[in-house]
Amino acid sequence: MKVQQTKRHFPENSILRPRKLLNETGEKESGAEGKGKSAAKGRLGSQAVLLLVVNGLFAVANALSGTFVNIYLWKIKNDLALIGWFALANQAAMSITIWIAGKWVKEHNKMNSLRLGVFVSAAFYFSILLLGKRSVDFVLPLGAVQGMSAAFFWLAFNVVYFEITDRDNRDSFNGWSGLLASAGMMVPWIAGLLISRMPDTQGYTVIFSISLVIFLLGVVVSFFLKKRKAQENYEWFHAYRQLADKSSDWRRICSALAAQGIREGVFGFVIGLLVYIATNNEMQLGNYALITSTVALISYWLIGKYLKPGHRSLGMLIGTVMLVLFILPFFWQVNYSTLLIFGIGTALVFPLYIIPMVSSVFDIIGKDRESATLRVEYVVLRELALSSGRIFGTLMFIVVVSLSRSPLVLSSMLLFIGSTPFVAWLLMRKLLNVVHQVDKSK
């Protein structure tokens, strides 16, 4: 329906109120941010830029040390299952924390949740520094602390992200987010260089210390983000009601997110570990991260810039098929060459899969005022669905590596887990088209 822009006065809650004065939460935009949206459709406002900076610092600090935490634990004790338990504790704590923190984020200052997430990340690396080689005896509490930090940060981040973006600039924001994360491509390489040049685990102490400083800097920058308007009455069991409602699209969406999480839960830690096991060299892992991040940098920029909502379904399908195909070289041999083929290929096509997935889910959250009012609950539901998939995938990994270390078994497991994005596309493809139809009707 085309609405004629006149000088008529609309009620504050009218759906006919000019779109440029409202964001998807139904709240007025003001200041530079609001003017930016009305003046240049699709451009990011100042608050979106600041949020990207905070996200960038968080990503850089994690890229610096997160890449090597699992390697550090592996060097102390060569146990794949131990690494799996560390990841599982992370994911379980993240799920519980997100559900509980939802009340704080909705009813109080969500920016404090984001800051706490960055601060707890700093506390995690401080704990690693204190424990040293005894860290392997505390993998469950350490994993839980890291999971809590991620929960506080990403819950607040995703809610604020929803509030300061809309359908016109959401793909652009996600492209820039991936671009900034990839822009830290030199960070793991530098970390690998430092670790390889220093004796024993001294290099790990240095990079964990640097990460600690970057996280604290992220806390400082976050204070330049405006305090967001709080809401009332957090609905504790909103997720359950959506899943119990057979007519709700969220049953399909959550299944798709769980499928996405299965891959994330395992590939997020196992690929870097496999690169180190294959090379026994931190510098090679740094080189691997540099090469794949460079490819991802270019891919995120191009796809974020040119992928339009109308092409999301096709783009996601192409990305999904290619993600699966790049796993097949592991059946020949798992070595640095095949891992590099996988890494470069995945970096090239992953944005085709993830940008439509993220953007479409948040578009669905913002489809109307009623849904946008429950944005915190929907973000919690989204994260819980992802976490359920991550936990399932990690449990599968622990069971498989506990029973067999056969290369064929491990490659088959990676192929099965790596194919789950195709399930996500099957479940989301109709909803991607619905989102496009809604866009055209505006």
3D architecture notes:
This is MFS transporter. Keywords: Membrane, Transmembrane, Transmembrane helix. Its main location: membrane. It is a single chain. By secondary structure, the chain is mostly helical. It has one domain: MFS general substrate transporter like domains (Growth Hormone, Chain: A). The protein is built from 17 helices and no strands. The longest helix is centred in the N-terminal third of the chain and has 31 residues, at 46-76. Mean pLDDT is 82; it is low at 1-24, 28-39 and 436-442.
Distance between the termini: 6 Å
Secondary structure tally: strands: 0
CATH A-level architecture = Up-down Bundle
* Overall form: globular
Question: Mean pLDDT score, rounded?
Answer: 82
Structural class: mainly alpha
Q: What is the CATH homologous superfamily assignment?
A: MFS general substrate transporter like domains
User: Under the CATH scheme, which class?
Assistant: Mainly Alpha
Q: Low-confidence spans: pLDDT under 50, at least 5 residues?
A: 1-24, 28-39, 436-442
Largest sheet, if any? none
One letter per element, helices H and strands E, the order comes to HHHHHHHHHHHHHHHHH
Radius of gyration: 22 Å
Please work out how many helical segments DSSP would assign: 17
Per CATH, what is the topology? Growth Hormone, Chain: A
Total of domains? 1
